Amino acid sequence: MAKLIYRVVSACGALGYGYPKESLENALRGRVDAIICDGGSMDAGPYYLGTGTEYFEHEAVKADFRHMVEAGKRLGCPVILGSSGMAGGNRNLDWMIGVAKEVFGELEVRDAKVAVIRSELDPEIVIQEFRKGALRPTGVGPELSEEALRESTIVGQMGIHPLITALEDGAQYVLAGRSCDVALFASDMIRRGIDAGLAYHVGHILECGALACDPGSPSDCLVAEIYDDGSALFVSPNPARRCTAYSIAAHSLYEESHPQLQFYPEGVLTMEKTEFFSRNSGVAGIRNSKFVRAGKPWPWSIKLEGSRRLGARKVSLIFVDPSDVANIPADVLVYGRNGVQAKPVQDGQRELGIIVETAAETQEAAVLLASLLTHYLFHYGYPGRKATAGNIAYPLSPNLVSFRRDDELFGAIVPSGTRDPVFFDHYPKIKEAVINLIQHEFPDALKNATFTITDADAASPAILLRTVDRDPQRLAAQHALEIDRITKLAKPKSTSRLHLDAPDAYEWSLYHLLQNENVVKNVMFDISYFRADGDSWLAEGGARPRYDDIGETNYSGNLDDRMLSLIADAPPSGVLLKSNRLLDMAVVIRSKDAGINRLTFDIIFTSAENYEAALHSNVFSSCNIAKLLGLPRERVVGTFFVDTCNAIKISIHRPNISASADERDVFGAQQQAAIESLSIPIYGTMLAKASSL
């Protein structure tokens, strides 16, 4: 019988999402080798790196971290946090250190060794690499320039070695800057001798918390158990969720542009031969994943992210009569027409704008309630949900605009939208459930602020105007001209909000690989050690990360992410019998950013029969997908079959860089409407083949 050799707890998908304390307590029963959480991401846009601010509310982050530290103090196990403060830059990390000191003081943590690992890089070093032509693109854009780089805040995504070094040096608490999400979990496992392929794959499944469960949510815990036979099991500590072979395999696709290949600083994780299995109705596992030390740019390429300020931003939200929409120019964002995607809604489709607005005596109260409402609306899991990456699309980063109302109260407003027909069917119950959740978890938020949720669609459209400029006077004048342009064509309703000062606009200036091994190993990721006595931290020196090679070197499989598992363009054979709605054939149809310059779609079918029939139809060849999405063929990275979970993955170059000034969907979570509307032709020979499986 296999022996348990390691057990790790993932607190949630990102620090600040929140998770039931009961789930963590259940997870802590029995052996615990580490408690780990990802602290952030680049998903929410460049603003947080450029400004050094946190995406989540201070109290939400503090509450999540407090539970982790409390458990670490009691059990004596490592507590690891990466991408601290959301973006992982120095200011983000310093903010998180402040939160940690508050928590350590309140919990009276004594004589604890803390490691702080920084990931910010001097722009001048990056400019030297740019001049040598040594920065490797990760896709299409962003375009590089010395001026933009010099104005940027730049971080590198650390891999496992800085984290391993800190743990080997005796740190119990690790606060890391920008980190590869998976490395946070893989590092301690690899340090303890666990196979790298298993460690990286386990890390990928854990990094979003319970999102890999059924039903999935990033606002809950997940546990992984590693055994000496080379397998790993995933267990939900919340009895309302379960892990299945299907849910684990499906999550292995999440946010990645290829279904079987994932690229890290140290090499390539390949899941071509991975086995997904169920232990029982609620526990599932993996085995046989491989980690390969391939040729350049791996190992020792570090993904760099750079953010720079574009300027101040003004926003107006103008509600108009539906009869006026025909007069509004096609380039203007109108909820009910083209608020979620630039391509207008087609016959038979619906687009819904969801405008959350709050009012309160204080700015903090108005912002808190608006943040909670939109957070829960975005992530709420409901029966039959197919767009599991997010329910709504945000056009702004940050998504919230705070302002002073005419009645002297403080206001906050968040525009968003969706085209998901499944969401529409559940929308009234979702709103009710979200309000109940907030009432239960944050009752003071509803006591201290009021809210409205306004629906904007073809029958009640809303126009969103956004203007960016570095000069305040020019910005005000330009935005006034844009409002004037609209109001000459349509009369604003009294509920419109004009001339709002939104947070500054930032852009991604860098998303490339640094390949200079000397800079990676000798300059980046400085480690500082502290001896913590409550909120007093005494510096104890530091270290440079220690590096060694990991992974297989004689791997004979395919590592070409343009060819492995590519769906062939093969015309279907047999007699056309009927067509089935894809919505009826698939349990998941989701879109999601895979980095700032790629968008990926996952279609996970209800059965092997439906999966095989969809493949045979040839609907999902790259050429046909390009036509469906209205893209040039070269913008389609690839369409791929995934036999392990009866899934099809589609990856494209993003139409724009995420969170650009013209953005409609920062997270890329609501771009699947054209795919959802597909009907799949079913051929006679395919039915015969599928029935014999």
From TrEMBL:
Pfam families the UniProt entry points to: AtuA (PF07287), DUF4387 (PF14330)
Top-level taxon in the UniProt lineage: Bacteria
InterPro entries named in the record: AtuA_N (IPR010839), DUF4387 (IPR025496)
Start and end residues of each DUF4387 domain: 582-675
Positions of the Acyclic terpene utilisation N-terminal domain: 95-277
Protein name (database record): DUF4387 family protein
Species this chain originates from: Bradyrhizobium vignae
